[in-house]
Design brief:
Helix content: 40-55%
Number of helices: 9
Strand content: 15-25%
CATH architecture of the domain at 2-115 and 178-212: 3-Layer(aba) Sandwich
Strand order of the largest sheet: 2-3-1-4-8
CATH topology of the domain at 2-115 and 178-212: Rossmann fold
Bound molecules: adenosine monophosphate
Order of helices and strands: EHEHHHEHEHEEEHHEH
Radius of gyration: 16 Å
Structural class: alpha/beta
CATH superfamily of the domain at 2-115 and 178-212: P-loop containing nucleotide triphosphate hydrolases
Length: 214
């Protein structure tokens, strides 16, 4: 099952992608995670991307499209994948369609996680992330059992640089201007499915299951 998860930062795409990917046994391909790992490891891509992530801006299309194309060509993506955080612009969506045709991989659906803007900002301001495995917690609704320590792997949790209020505003602007047009783009192509992303992780997972058919 080849899926794209769309939605504003903080809508919960990453959390839902992890849950579903581990259940249906397909890779969870998160471009944000790929960039954060590249930055941590000091690779050339990391050096190029760092300034964009720090400012809450999108990394240039050419860089992201190349990375995703290479990742989707790997053998583990043949039976399925969940693309989380890509595409984020119309040129990226066009590039993805070309890559999928070339690779012979059919896109089953694009799931759009929708959520009220105030709830989004509240979520982002109480979000902490595991430095090692990327698991996301919410200090209000879903805190780690031991403060500062990831439930899944024991790694250290931290506030992502780009979850600070000034950068959140910039990321939401980028979303509205460059990513929101993808909703209409995929709707016109008959691929868009909506999931209301407010509420608990479990409720959203149930809504997602109804949309993608488990
Ligand atoms: P995320 O973890 O998905 O919120 O992504 C974190 C940051 O990585 C974004 O704010 C961008 O700077 C960068 N990024 C991730 N995915 C993309 C993409 N598809 N296009 C451009 N930049 C991206």
């Amino acid at each position: 099952m080849h899926l794209v998860f769309l939605g504003a930062p903080g809508a919960g795409k990453g959390t839902q992608a992890k849950v579903l990917a581990s259940r249906i046994l397909v890779p969870h391909v998160s471009t944000g995670d790929i960039f954060r790992a590249a930055i941590k490891n000091g690779t050339p891509v990391g050096v190029e991307a760092k300034g964009f992530l720090d400012r809450g801006e999108l990394v240039p299309d050419a860089v992201v499209c190349r990375i995703v194309r290479e990742r989707l060509a790997e053998a583990d993506c043949r039976k399925g994948f969940i693309l989380d955080g890509f595409p984020r612009t119309v040129p990226q969506a066009e590039s993805l369609s070309v890559s999928l045709v070339e690779l012979g991989l059919p896109l089953k659906a694009v799931v759009n996680f929708t959520i009220d803007r105030n709830e989004l900002v509240a979520r982002l301001s109480s979000r902490v992330t595991c430095r090692s495995c990327g698991t996301v917690f919410n200090l209000e609704s879903n805190p780690p059992k031991v403060a500062g320590c990831c439930d899944s792997c024991g790694g250290e949790t931290y506030v992502r640089e780009d979850d600070r209020p000034e950068t959140v505003a910039r990321r939401l602007e980028e979303y509205d201007r460059k990513t929101a047009p993808l909703e209409a783009w995929y709707r016109e192509r008959g691929l868009l499915r909506e999931v209301v992303a407010s509420g608990t992780v479990t409720n959203v997972t149930a809504a997602l299951d109804r949309v993608v058919g488990g």
